[in-house]
């Protein structure tokens, strides 16, 4: 009896060790969250401070006086059209994302569904474009855009990025796993390839389209080199180009730089907060295994 009692006692899970493990996990999670929030704290703190508060030896958690007038100073700075740059980035991000979704989804759907004997060859050619460094195509792209008269224009910023081999690849992988029964039912009802794509495939792929849209929008918003070369006039600057002007060889406008960086990431934070669940869903549907 003593032996069975002892064995029963040893087999019982220890509640104390389970609680200790949970506390440790939560502690690590809290520390990781705080470390993640440090850059955001620095952005907000330095945005509402003076240059002396930022670079001074007596560091404070927050400045004694919060300088809210920095916001009006930023948007009224004649050297940097911040509001215009934000608008340009929004237009480039939205139209570039919508255009790339349309073009690349059509390409991916054609590669996955159109019965063409050279489809695999075209697919491999698309994959081959991923191996070409962007620096190789940069100059030819600029020459082409310049010859069309699109320098310092929104179409020069948007049109060259409407096709992405990687995005087309992701759409192809997704459409390969899309239920063919739905498409066959649509064709029985008299829909053609375009009607099947637009009325059946797209509405049933909203999660995946949303995931690609989030990634593409963030990429377009953060683009710097191409907008820097194409946007030779202030009226065509994007927000990333505007940020670069706060740091020059002569001066560094520190508090405006931090405030501009804070303002520039707000759209990305909002997009991520509202659509983050689609990122996980989209990756799960691409057919790519880690």
Automatic annotation (TrEMBL):
Annotated localization: Cell membrane
Residue stretches spanning the membrane: 20-44, 90-111, 123-144, 150-171, 208-229, 257-275
Membrane topology: Multi-pass membrane protein
Family statement: Belongs to the binding-protein-dependent transport system permease family.
Matching Pfam families: BPD_transp_1
Domain ABC transmembrane type-1: 86-276
Entry-linked CDD domains: TM_PBP2 (cd06261)
Keywords, ordered alphabetically: Cell membrane, Membrane, Transmembrane, Transmembrane helix, Transport
Gene3D superfamilies, alphabetized: MetI-like
Protein name from the UniProt record: Carbohydrate ABC transporter permease
């Amino acid at each position: 009896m003593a032996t069975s009692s002892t064995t029963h006692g040893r087999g019982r899970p220890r509640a104390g060790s389970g609680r200790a493990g949970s506390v440790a996990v939560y502690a690590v999670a809290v520390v990781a969250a705080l470390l993640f929030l440090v850059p955001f704290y620095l952005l907000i703190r330095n945005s509402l401070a003076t240059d002396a508060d930022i670079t001074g030896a007596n560091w404070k958690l927050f400045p004694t006086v919060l300088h809210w007038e920095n916001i009006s100073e930023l948007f009224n700075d004649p050297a940097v059209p911040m509001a215009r740059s934000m608008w340009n980035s929004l237009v480039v991000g939205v139209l570039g994302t919508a255009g790339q979704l349309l073009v690349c989804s059509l390409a991916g759907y054609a590669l996955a569904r159109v019965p063409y004997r050279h489809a695999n060859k075209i697919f491999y050619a698309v994959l081959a474009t991923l191996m070409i460094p962007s620096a190789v195509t940069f100059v030819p792209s600029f020459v082409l855009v310049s010859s069309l008269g699109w320098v310092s224009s929104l179409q020069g910023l948007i049109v060259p990025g409407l096709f992405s081999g990687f995005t087309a690849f992701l759409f192809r992988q997704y459409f390969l796993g899309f239920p063919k029964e739905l498409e066959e039912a649509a064709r029985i009802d008299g829909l053609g390839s375009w009607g099947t794509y637009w009325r059946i495939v797209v509405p049933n792929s909203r999660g995946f389209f949303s995931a690609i849209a989030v990634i593409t929008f963030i990429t377009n918003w953060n683009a710097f080199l191409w907008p820097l070369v194409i946007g030779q006039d202030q009226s065509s600057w994007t927000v990333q180009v505007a940020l670069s002007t706060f740091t020059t060889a002569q001066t560094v406008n520190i508090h405006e730089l931090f405030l501009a960086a804070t303002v520039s990431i707000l759209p990305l934070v909002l997009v991520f907060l509202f659509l983050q669940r689609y990122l996980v869903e989209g990756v799960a549907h691409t057919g790519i295994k880690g």
